[in-house]
Amino acid sequence: MLATASDRSGPYPVVVRLRVAAAQIDTVVGDLAGNAERILAAYEAAEAEDADVVCFPELAVTGYPPEDLLLRSTFVGQAAETLDKIASRTGRAAAVVGFPQAGRDLYNAAAVCAHGEVVGVYRKHLLPNYGVFDEQRYFAPDPTDGPLFVVGGVRMGVSICEDAWSPTGPVASQAAAGAEVVVNINASPYYAGRLAERETMLATRAADASVPLVYVNLVGGQDELVFDGASLVFDERGRMVARARQFVEDLLIVDVDVRGVFRKRLLDPRGRATAPPLPEITVSEPRIHEVAAHPRIEPVLPPVLEVYEALVLGTRDYVEKNGFREVVIGLSGGIDSSLVATIAADAIGPDRVIGVLMPSRYSSEGSVADAEQLAANLGIRTLTIPIEPAHRAFLDMLAEPFAGTEPGTAEENVQARVRGTVLMSLSNKFGWLVLTTGNKSETATGYSTLYGDMAGGFAVIKDVPKSLCYALAVERNEREGREIVPSTVIEKPPSAELRPGQLDSDSLPPYPVLDPILEQYVGEDRSVTELVEAGYDPDVVGAVARLVDRNEYKRRQAPPGVRVSAKAFGKDRRLPITSRWPG
Questions:
Q1: How many CA atoms, within 13 angstroms, populate the side-chain half-sphere of residue 364?
Q2: Are 242 and 229 spatial neighbours (Cβ–Cβ below 8 Å)?
C-alpha cells in the first residue's frame, strides 16, 4: 500500500514509491517525425503500465549526435515544434524528453511534459568535449541545477548524461537541495567494458548523494557509434534495482522506493539536504498503484558476445537507416571476410547478403572451398567472378613503365584493386552496399590496399583486432552449436594470397605480439619509450610505430565502421597526417 500525505513542506516523502519507465529507444538523426512516433509509442506503452514518469534518451527528438545539423536554425526550430507536438499528446504521466533548446544560446535540454504541454525544462550543465564528444562546439552550459519537478508527490531532479559523471555535479547538488529521485537521460556510446564503468560510477553517485538514480540510455547505431541501452536504476544506497537489456529497444518499468532516502540522509552526512531548496514545479499529485511493478535485472552479455552484438547492431542500423536493401562482401576464404559475412547475415538476414568469390592465380583451392562452405553454412547467395583476365590485362598495360623493376607490392596490389573495382561496379549496378573486411590490426599498420580491399561503404570490423576476430568466430560457432565459420578458416595461417606462399607474418609481427602493442600505442597513447620500458622488443615496437604513423593518410580515406573500443580510429584518435614526431 502506498502511503500519501498532504504536507509537502516537510522532509518526509509524500509517497513511498514512484513508478518510473525508462524508455530506451532507437532514434534516427534528423528523423524528427519518426522519432516523435517512437517516443509517443513508448509513452503510451508506459501509460498503460500506470507509469508516473517516462524518461527518454538525450536529444531523443533529434537523434544523437546531430552534429552540425545543430548549426541550422531551421533544424532547431523544427525540433522545438516536434517537441510541442509530443507534449500535446501527454497526459498525467510526465515525459522527460531530450531536445535542443534555443534561447540566448543553444542548450542540450530535457523537457518535462505533462497535461498537454511543456511544464519545465532542465539544461545540461556539463558538456563533454573529449573522445567522440564535441558538445562545446554546439551548446552552452547552464550552471543552474533546477528546478525540481514534483511528480506523483515525489521531488524529482533531472540531469543529462555527463552531469552524472562528476561527483560534484547536478546529481549531488539536486539531492542536497531536496530531490528524492534523480533522472539522468543519456546517449552514452558503447565500447567494450563501458557498462561496468557506468555501473560503478552510478552506484557511487547514488550512494554519495543518498538518492535513487534512474539512468536511461539510447540504443542503436549512428554512423560509427553504437549505443547499447542497458538502462539502470539504483537505490539511495547504490544498490542496483533494475537493468534493461543490451542492444535492443526496451521499456523498463520500476517502482522506485523513496522511503529510505530521508533515513539514509540522517545516517550519512554526504547526502544531507544542505543546499537551499530549488524552485519546484508540481506536475502531478500522489496516487496509489494497486499492483506493484516488479523490477528486472537483465543479465550482462559475456564480453565476446557483447562485442559481437554491438557489431551486429551497428551494421544493421547503418544499412537500414541509410536505405540499403542488400550488402555485398568479397569472400576470400579468410577469417575477416568470413566474420563480416556472418555478422551481416545476423544483422539483416542471409537473403540480403551477397558474397562474391574473386579467385586469382594465387588463390588456393582450400580458400575457394572455405568461402563456398561459409556461404552454404550462412545460406547467402554467391557470385564467382575470377579476376585473372583483368589481372593479366593490368600487368600487360603496366609492362612498359614497370620494365626493368622487380615484381613486388605494386603488382600484388593490382589484384586487390581489381577486386575493389568489381565490388564497386556491382554496388553501382544493383545498389548494394559494399562491406569492407579489414580489421583494426590491418587498419593500424596499413596492411591493406588503398582503393582495393579498402574500397567500400562500411567497414564492419575496422575496430576489431585480428586476435579478437578469431574469438568472435569461435563464439558464434559455439552459440550456434555447429560450424558457421569453417574450422579450416579459423585454423589456417592468415594470408592475403597475393603471391605464392604469402603469409601475414611475412610483413607483420605475429598477431598475438602485434595486437597488445597496438592496444597500448594506439588505444592508450603510450610512447615507444614506454613500451620498450615495459619489456617489448625495441625493434618490433619501433617497426610497428612507424607503420601506424605513416599510414594515417590511408585511414583518413577509409569508410566508417563500428566503434567497439575506447579509442577507435576516427573521432577518437585525431593525429595529423603530416608530422615528424618520432613517436
A1: 18
A2: no
Same domain? For 326 and 254 the reply is no
Q: 64, 301, 269, 99: which is closest to 194 by C-alpha?
A: 301
In a domain, 58, yes or no: yes
- Identify the CATH number of the domain in which residue 412 sits: 3.40.50.620
Kindly report the number of other CB atoms within 10 A of residue 80's CB atom. Answer: 16
- Pick the closest to residue 206 from 148, 156, 167 (CA basis): 167
Number of domains in the chain: 2
Question: What is the three-class DSSP state of 50?
Answer: coil
Query: Can you give the CATH number for the domain in which 167 is found?
Result: 3.60.110.10
- Position 572 confidence tier, pLDDT thresholds 50, 70, 90: confident
Together in a domain, 276 and 310: no
Chain position carrying cell 619489456: 535
Q: Which of 58, 199, 306, 309 is catalytic?
A: 58
Task: Residue 98: name the closest of 77, 83, 120, 117 by CA.
Answer: 83
Query: Which cell goes with 307?
Result: 562485442
For residue 488, the surrounding DSSP H or E stretch is helix 487-491
44 in Cβ contact with 36 (< 8 Å): no
Extract the C-alpha cell encoding 343.
555478422
Q: Residue 290: pLDDT above 80? A: no
Q: Rounded distance, CA 270 to CA 282, Å?
A: 27
For the question of residue 483 being annotated catalytic, the response is: no
Q: Any catalytic annotation for residue 161?
A: yes
Kindly report whether the peptide bond that precedes residue 65 is cis, defined as omega within 30 degrees of 0. yes
CA distance 156 to 56: 15
CB atoms within 10 A of CB 397: 11
Pair 188, 71 in one domain: yes
**Selection from 17, 21, 51 nearest residue 259 by Cα:** 17
308 and 241 housed in the same domain: no
Which is catalytic among the residues 55, 124, 224, 442?
124
CA 30, 557, 330, 374 dihedral sign is negative
pLDDT digits 0-9 by tens, 342-396: 999 999 999 999 999 999 888 888 889 999 999 999 999 999 999 999 999 999 9
Are 333 and 421 part of one and the same domain? yes
Phi-psi category of residue 525: left, alpha or beta, with phi > 0 → left and psi -120 to 50 → alpha: left
Domain annotation covers residue 424 = yes
CA angle 254, 257, 259 (to 5 degrees): 175
List 55, 113, 135, 161, catalytic entry: 161
What pTM was estimated for this model as a whole? 0.94
Task: Based on the fold, state whether residues 215 and 247 are members of the same structural domain.
Answer: yes
Residues 42 and 181 in one domain: yes
Distance, CA of 326 to CA of 328 (rounded, Å): 7
In whole angstroms, give the CA distance from residue 179 to residue 286. Answer: 16
Q: Judge if 82 and 176 occupy the same domain.
A: yes
41 occurs within a structural domain: yes
Q: What is the dihedral of CA 65, 27, 310, 345, to 10 degrees?
A: -130
Q: Which of 282, 317, 349 is where one domain is finished?
A: 282
> Which pLDDT does position 4 carry in this prediction?
37
Structural domain boundaries enclosing 81: 17-282
Beta bridge partners of 328: 354, 434
Over residues 528-550, the pLDDT tens digits come to 999 999 999 999 999 999 999 99
